Amino acid sequence: MLYPLAQADGYEGHMVTARRRRAITDDSRGRCGQMWNTWSPSSSFVDADFEQAAEAGDNPESTHISVHAYLHPRSEAPGEPAYQNSEHRSTDPPAVRGPTLVLHGE
Fold it and tell me: What is the rounded distance in angstroms from the CA atom of residue 41 to the CA atom of residue 79?
């Protein structure tokens, strides 16, 4: 599966399944090209500019880091052990007790 097809279900959705994760691993240049076309300013770039930027996608760790960044907030990938206590505290925050006012109007 080519990266643009994997992305068709939604930007974040393409990281969820193993098949889509393989797409970004197998087609790192496609992933970089899609990101380049989606997020770069609408200026004229030459191919050499893209090639220089796409070198980052050639690093196998780049894909792992990208996938982990999407999976971790959904509790689909482990976090850094050093931050486990902080993460646990943030997932179960204390209740805020205090007066509340709700305004309804037209």
Answer: 33
